[in-house]
Inverse folding.
């Protein structure tokens, strides 16, 4: 058996296209390898030259940042609550060669639970002017989430904006006054009225506005397709266009908009997909 090994190696060598031999194939890892609906995976690519690789996930560019100490590029890939379970292909192209490498990733169905909420009737049964307002606000937010700055401003670990525990998790189906509405697109963190709210990472303030459902809201564009959202604030301490550092005080928590009491609603959009922010923070802890 041992005598036949060189012949076998020779056979595989000629089968491999130029640039894709086992020795030059990039070292690409995704942690965890299987991603649930609404969850995030950490992508790392071992450095092979100085130029940044190009990564396409679900038809969109994935931003990578450099970790010089560990000799890798890293970034996030995610699936939202509406991503159909199944196999998806991640495409990677290194600047140093012409071959495209791919990795198959499984998206699993995930049950995020259910919550029942009771709010005043006028907060769910909207009159025509309110409905118009809500649709305008929703279009405005959608525009911000699909127009991220190309270059990442974020780095290292992502942090929780307030220290409070999760009082309502990400993704749970929402039964509001007995009717099923959109699932929860972020997490609700326990925060007494007036608690300072910190930026989860560095970025540019993309929105400061008082919206019908989300109340006084701040959105930060972290670049590279990632934005973070802070809703129901009682006070905003930043202005649109301002560059904020990780941990900067963006405002104070409150209960403005459709809220049953003071808390912070915290959300993260990754390439236009709402993902579990706690999940993203946890997987960034390795940096
Ligand atoms: Zn919420």
């Amino acid at each position: 058996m041992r005598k036949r090994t060189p012949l076998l190696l020779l056979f595989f060598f000629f089968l491999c296209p130029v640039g894709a031999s086992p020795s030059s194939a990039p070292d690409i890892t995704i942690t965890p390898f299987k991603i649930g609906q609404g969850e995030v995976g950490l992508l790392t690519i071992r450095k092979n030259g100085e130029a940044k690789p190009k990564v396409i996930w679900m038809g969109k560019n994935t931003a990578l940042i450099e970790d010089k100490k560990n000799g890798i590029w890293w970034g996030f890939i995610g699936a939202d609550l509406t991503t159909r379970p199944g196999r998806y292909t991640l495409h990677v192209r290194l600047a140093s060669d012409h071959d495209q490498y791919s990795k198959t990733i499984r998206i699993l169905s995930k049950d995020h639970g259910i919550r029942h909420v009771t709010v005043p009737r006028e907060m769910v049964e909207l009159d025509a002017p309110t409905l118009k307002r809500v649709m305008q606000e929703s279009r405005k937010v959608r525009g911000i989430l699909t127009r991220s700055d190309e270059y990442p401003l974020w780095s290292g670990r992502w942090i929780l904006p307030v220290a409070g525990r999760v009082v309502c998790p990400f993704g749970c189906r929402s039964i509001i006054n007995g009717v099923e509405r959109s699932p929860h697109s972020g997490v609700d963190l326990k925060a007494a009225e007036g608690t300072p709210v910190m930026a989860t990472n560095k970025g540019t303030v993309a929105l400061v506005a008082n919206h019908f459902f989300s109340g006084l809201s701040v959105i930060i564009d972290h670049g590279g397709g990632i934005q973070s959202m802070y809703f129901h604030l009682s006070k905003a301490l930043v202005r649109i266009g301002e560059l904020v550092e990780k941990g900067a005080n963006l405002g104070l928590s409150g209960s403005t908009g459709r809220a049953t009491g003071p808390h912070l609603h915290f959300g993260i959009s990754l390439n236009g997909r709402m993902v579990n922010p706690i999940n993203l923070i946890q997987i960034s802890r390795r940096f």
Observations:
- The longest strand covers residues 226-236.
- The pocket of zinc ion is lined by residues 168, 184, 186, 188, 265 (CB under 6 Å).
- Residues 128-145 form the longest helix (18 residues).
- The chain has a mean pLDDT of 89.
